[in-house]
Amino acid sequence: MTIIVTGGAGFIGSALVRRLIAAGENVVTLDCLTYAGHLLSLGDALEAGNHSFERVDIRDADAVRDIFARHKPHAVMHLAAESHVDRSIDSPMDFVSTNVTGTVVMLQAAQEYWASLDAAAKEGFRFLHVSTDEVYGSLGAEGVFTEDTPYQPNSPYSASKAASDHFARAWHRTFGLPVLISHCSNNYGPYQMPEKLIPVIILAGLEGRDMPVYGTGENVRDWLHVEDHVAALELILRNGASGGTYNVGADAETTNIDMVRTICACLDELLPDSWHRPHDQLIRFVTDRPGHDLRYAIDSSRVRDELGWRPARALEQGLKATVAWYLENRWWWQSIREGGFEDKRQGLRTAV
Ligand code: NAD
Questions:
Q1: How many separate domains does the chain show?
Q2: What is the pTM of this model?
Q3: pLDDT tens for each residue of 25-37
């Protein structure tokens, strides 16, 4: 099977490409390499005989159409996006442009290509649009997001993802394109950009810098290991019902402050000679993110019951392995910094 993976040089996309390459699929990574895209993250998959890389912006309709014509895919897994909520507060138009317009360009090109296929190829074709549980808004102390929870996005990021979901659904209903949509909770694991909570805390601990925790740290996230997530995406692509929506989460809710303390405990254990022990002395509470959603929790019974997906890692085990990965793979995040990436606080603007 030939699969186009958009955003394949990003955090989740690269884990997906590595998995699909190992499974022997022909993978076309389509990515324009923003600050968040790094070919280094593909490892050996980059040079594999069954992998090709196309440096293309998903907003460039002619270039995207050309990719479909040349590679003749059986499926598209669409992950390319601007993904950082804080950046969406500072630069919302970038999120509208890539996440909304870029998704519509992908859908339009896929639909034109799909319409040219014979009946059997049309039947087998799939377009998996990868979205987030943040489109459902924020939960109080109780409850979980199901696939039927009404949309109520609160940040420019989640609003742009919500809009893109509606376009994906519309391309299924109006044009018959075999679209699937997945909504996952917060991912963690190797190769995540050092601007997201977990790598920010790990690197601060390693370097003896302040560990910024937004607000009181009581916000709750439902953590999913990236490799468990991409296993779910593969199952959804292969066995999901055309037009179906699937929530993916690992039932691993924790407050941000508990997460940070657990990372500190992992650092204490993995770095017994560090001058910065105990690492939790580095925790600092900082100004909260404007509009910070209180709690996310996901009901993933559909993907479990209908497709047989199960997460393979418990949170504590996955987290410890992730901390160890950042300690052992300094070359990866150092090369990102050397490329000009600066981990500075973003998203404090309250008026656009
Ligand atoms: P990421 O920011 O790590 O990677 C995004 C990738 O998309 C990068 O490689 C970047 O170069 C590429 N890209 C951005 N704009 C592009 C454009 N205009 N044209 C081509 N490529 C472009 O993101 P991620 O964390 O891997 O997230 C992947 C997808 O999963 C996104 O759609 C995101 O909304 C969704 N998601 C992520 C999480 C999470 O916890 N990380 C949770 C839920 C949903």
A1: 1
A2: 0.98
A3: 999 999 999 999 9
